[in-house]
Amino acid sequence: MFYQTRLRTITLILALGFLAVYASFGSYFAREIVIEITILAILAISLDFCAGFGGMVSLCHGAIMGISAYAFSIMSVKLGLPSVPSAMIGLMAAVVFSGLVGWVTARTSGIFFIMATLAFGQMAYTFFFKSRWLGGDDGMGGIDRFNLSWLGVDMNDALVFALFGVAVLLLVYVIAAILLRSGFGRILSGIHSNENRMQAVGINTANHKAMAMAASGLMAGIAGILAAQHTLYISPELLIWTVSGEVLLVVILGGIGTLIGPVVGAIMLVMLKHELSNYTDYWHMVVGMVLIFAVLAGGRGIFGQIEYWLITRHSPKTPHLPPAKEKDLA
Amino acid sequence: MDASFWLLQFLNAMQYSMLLFLLSIGLTVIFGLMHFVNLAHASLYMLGAYFGISVSALTGQFWLAFILSPIIVTLIGAILYYTLIDRMRAAGPMNQVLVTFGLIFVILDLVRLGWGDIALGLDAPDALAHTVSFWGISYPAYRLFIIALGLTIMISMWVVLARTQIGAMIRASVENADMAASLGIHVGRLFFVVFCFGCALAGLAGVAAAPIFSATTTMGITILIPTLIVVVIGGLGSLEGAIAGSLIIGFLETFGAVLLPSLSAVLTYILLAVILVLRPQGLIPARG
C-alpha cells in the first residue's frame, strides 16, 4: 500500500530542489548530468510502480523506453510529423507494447515473469538492431526537441531542457502517486500481497496486471521521449537488457516500493558513475559490488532503510511497513 | 540448395546446439535443484574461454587448457557458492537476479582488467586444425569435435541421471528436496556438487568455443539470452528439456538465418512467447 508520508514529500522536494539548483548554478556538464538523472529517475519510478507495488519485476523497461523513443523519432524524422503528436504516438506505442507484454505474461510469476520480460525486451532490441530502415545498430539522428518558443523559452538551451526534465519528473511522480492511491493502486498492492485472495474477492487479476504494466509503460515512454530529445539521436543501445537491469539496480539502491527511493537511487547512481569514471574505467565493477552489497544488506535500499529506521524508532514494536523481501515471488 | 547445403547447415546447427546444451544444462539443473537463478552462469563461460587462452599461451598445450580451464572455473564457482550463492538461495528470484546481475558487472570488469578489451583468439589443436571432406562437403574437424563432445556429454549425463544412484538422488531432490533430505540424502552437499559440475560445463563450453568464436568481453552477455530461452522452452530442471530446447533454438537460429533472414531475429522470441502462453512450464518440465 502506498502512502505519501511527510518524509517522502520532504525527500521529493529536496531531491527536485537539488536537481534544479545543481542545473541552475552548475556548468553545462552539470546540466547534462541533471537531465540524465531525470530520465533514469522517471524510468525507475515506472519500474517501481509495477515491481515494487505490483510484484512484477520487469526486465524490459529499457525496451519500453526505447520503443517510445523510436516511435517518436519515426513519426517526427521519417514521417515529418510535428513533435507533440509524434510524442503522443511514441507514448501510445510504449503503452501498447508494455500492455501486451503484461497481458501475455499475466499468468506467469516469479522467475518466469522475469525471463519472459527479458525475452520480450530482447525481441524489441533485436528488431531495431536489424532494421535497416531505422539505421540498424547505427541508430538514427535528426530528432528535434519540443518547440516551446511560444512560452518564450528555447529548449535547445541546456538549462531550460534540464529544468524541463525536472518538471516532467515531478509530473511522473504525481501521476504514479495518484494512480497508487486510487482504487486501482490498492487492488495492485492487493495482488502483490496475495493474488489468489484478490481473485477470490472477484477481481480479474490478469487484467489488472496488464493495465498496471500499461500504466508503467506510459511512464517509461515519457522517459523515452525525453531520452530521444536529450541526445537528439537514438540507437538500439537504449533497449538492451542491461539497461533494464541498471534501472532495477536504481530501484533497489534507492528503495523498492517507496516511489521516492528510485529518484534517490537515480541521483546516487548517475553521480557515482560520473565521479568514478573520472578515476577509473572500471566503474561497472564498483556498481556491481554496490548492488550485491545493497541486496545482502537487506534489500531495503538507501531511502527504504532510512524510512525503516525512522518508523521503527517511533514505534519499535510494530513497524507498519512490510519488509522488503519478496516472499510472494517464489 | 542441394543436399550438401542442408548437410552443412545441419552441422552448423548441431554445433551451436551443443554449445547451448553445455551451458543450459548447468543452468537448468542448478535451477531445478536449488531454485537459484544464476545470471552469472554465462560469465563463467566467458572466464572459461579466457583462462583457456591464457593456459594455452603459457604452456603451448591446447589439451592442457581444455582440462585446466574448466577446473579453474569450477574453483571460482565453488568460491562464489560459499560467499554468495548459498546465502541467496532462500532470498527469492528478484534478489537472486540482482546479485548475479551485479556479479556479471564485477566479472566483466575483472576480465577487462586481466585480459584487456581486445578480442583474443585461440588456435584449434594441430590434430583438429584441418578440414574433413565427406559426402561432397568439407567441414572443419574441430567443429565436428565439438558436436562429438556435446553428444558424448549428453549421453553420459543421461546415463548418470537415469541409471546411477547419484542420478536418482539428484532426480529425487529436484522432485522434492525435503522428502529427499528425510530419506537420508545430504541435499546440501548434492547442491554443491551439482553447482560445481554446472560451472565446470560452463567453463568447458567457454574453452571449447574459444577457437570458433574469439573471446570477447561481451561473449557472456551475448550467449546468456539464448541460454535462458533454452532453459525456459525446455522446462526448468530437466535434462530432456535442455536437450530439446538447445536443439530447437540451435536449429531455429541457424536455419532461420539462412532461410528467413528478415524474420530470423525475432523467430526465437516468437517461439518463446508462444510457449510461455500455451505451456508456461516448458516442453519437458522436471516435475510433472
Outline:
The complex is a heterodimer of chains A (330) and B (288). Chain A has 330 residues and is mostly helical.
What can you tell me about this protein's structure?
The complex is a heterodimer of chains A (330) and B (288). Chain A has 330 residues and is mainly alpha-helical. Chain A has one domain (6-240). Chain A has helices at 6-25, 28-51, 61-78, 83-104, 110-130, 158-181, 183-193, 195-200, 205-231, 241-254, 261-279, 283-296, 301-314. In chain A, helix 2 packs across helix 11 (261-279). Chain B is mainly α and 288 residues long. Chain B has one domain (8-117, 142-278): ABC transporter involved in vitamin B12 uptake, BtuC (Orthogonal Bundle). Chain B is built from eleven helices and two strands, in the order H-H-H-H-E-E-H-H-H-H-H-H-H. Chain B has helices at 3-34, 41-59, 62-88, 93-115, 141-163, 165-175, 177-182, 187-209, 219-234, 239-259, 264-278; strands at residues 131-134, 137-140. Chain B has a two-stranded antiparallel ribbon with strand order 1-2. In chain B, a hairpin with a 2-residue loop joins strand 1 and strand 2 (137-140). In chain B, helix 1 runs parallel beside helix 5 and helix 2 (41-59) packs across helix 9. Chain B is globular. The mean pLDDT of chain B is 85.
